[in-house]
Amino acid sequence: MRRIYSDFCLKTETFFMKIRVIFIERMFWKFVSIEKVFRQIADKLPKAEFQSSFQKLKFGNNLSGTLKNLILFKLPAADIFHITGHIHYMAFRMPAEKTVLTIHDLGLLRVNRGIKRYILKKIYLDLPVRKLKYITTISEATKSEIIYYTGCSQNKIRVIENPLFEEFSVNKKKKNFNQQCPTILQIGTGVNKNLLNLIEATKNIVCKLDIVGQLSDVQRKLLLTNKTLYENSFELTDRQMLEKYKDADIVSFCSTFEGFGLPVIEAQAMLTPVITSNISPLKEVAGNGAVIVDPEDKNAITSAINKIIADKEFREKLVDDGRANVERFRSHIIASQYESLYREIIENCRIK
Fold this sequence. Notes:
The protein is of the alpha/beta class and 352 residues long. Helices cover 45% and strands 16% of the residues. It has a six-stranded parallel β-sheet. Strands 9-8-7-10-11-12 form a six-stranded parallel β-sheet, with helices on both faces. Helix 2 (33-44) crosses helix 14 and helix 10 crosses helix 13 (312-326).
């Protein structure tokens, strides 16, 4: 009788124990959007059933840092490990049956060539995907790329989109649209952000470009050549970035490549008309709440801007559709999808 009672107590204690989830993060880096994403997700998991914590790696992702991370990492006690991004190689140290790896994009395959690309592909993509049982990514476009490059089964990868950051609760009131000289917010100055085409597209439009990101000499020269009215800022705080969205009349995010495209839904949440690209995942992220254009077609970008400026009814419908689209990216909705995955992993581990 005493043994039966002890077994019952053990089973009851196990049943009511919280699920321990540890998020494994890269060493602190100046761009922390990934970290913000998973802190929001952790915060929205049911507190009565989940216990979340974060473990940041001590070294960077250069060769020596990668080796040190792999050798010196001490595996803590947890029910689920979640590798949050850009340190995919940590899969080599994790238990395959209870580790989730989130792959945000495959940009490393675009910017590297030759033997370096081959090695990075192996340690950041091929081997981690082969070893682990649970892979998530943030768009169908990236999922297709992972399948293409690794040959893994499509059933191995789940698409769970990124949440809208909490500070971007839907704006209740938007300043009046400046039809005489609208401010067009451009976020990012990397090659894929397509700033040069935007500068050319606005050459004959009375407007001001508000550019966030460090400008290259080529970009500055074209702005000067076209006599473009603009302002430039970078390394902004979250609060400053929020004000940029509020002050903008239009947001242009016509990238040639993106892993996801958070600025699209951030602009929608701030009730700002959006122009974005007809590529995946941007067109899927935008839903019906954006003007979709070919990012390589400067005339298409020009036409979209002019349409938003001239047509008030069109502009207001764009904002309304954007407001509705944002709701599917709320933190609690995204967190519930991860919660379902975590519960599935726990159940599968119990069965075995």
